[in-house]
Design a protein that fits this description.
By secondary structure, the chain is an alpha/beta fold. About 25% of the residues lie in helices and about 30% in strands.
């Protein structure tokens, strides 16, 4: 939106739909959301930005509630996915796109080594249930890996930083066009 430093702070584009941040809090900010194939990863920091009204109909008292399960159910419906995984903060950062990248059309996740190690159980569950290719990268390489995925007539093009040679080679091995 106007005044946002990063366009990703304004919306997430998923399954042909724009999910705007002003209407959906953290669920509309792409820094908190990494798309997978039939699942999404959401940074726990998004919960504090996405509040739900909870009320007592008898007394008419309404208040805000931050409920993890309600949040996950809402996110599943909003994104039309089978599962939502809440991902912990890392070194104080709530934006998980600094540590995880997704190419849902190719069922690929890339994860920085340290974040993968600290969240081994969650990534193991994702691997068992959805079988994505998980590419683990070195920290310094991941930091340079701000990628853009472009789908042109079913052919995927992935734009990455040239300083991410391991990731670029892995993506080429998966028959993706790397720019």
């Amino acid at each position: 939106g106007i005044g946002d430093l990063y366009i990703g702070d304004s919306y997430v584009f998923s399954n042909g739909r724009y999910i705007p941040s002003p209407h959906f809090g953290g669920l509309g900010e792409s820094g908190y959301v990494v798309l997978g194939n039939h699942f999404i990863l959401v940074g726990e920091g998004a919960i504090s930005e996405t509040e739900f009204m909870e009320g007592n109909t008898r007394t008419g008292n309404y208040g805000r509630k931050r409920d993890r399960e309600l949040f996950k159910d809402f996110a599943k419906k909003l994104y039309g996915v089978e599962e939502v995984y809440l991902m912990p903060r890392y070194d104080g950062f709530g934006h998980i796109d600094l540590f995880i990248g997704g190419i849902p059309e190719a069922n690929i996740l890339s994860v920085s080594r340290d974040y993968h190690k600290k969240n081994r159980r969650i990534f193991g569950e994702i691997k068992e249930r959805f079988d994505p290719c998980i590419i683990v990268t070195e920290e310094e390489e991941f930091e340079n890996n701000y990628r853009v995925v472009y789908n042109k007539g079913g052919e995927l093009f992935v734009i990455t930083d040239k300083d991410a040679p391991h990731l670029r080679a892995e993506l080429r091995d998966k028959s993706l066009n790397v720019v």
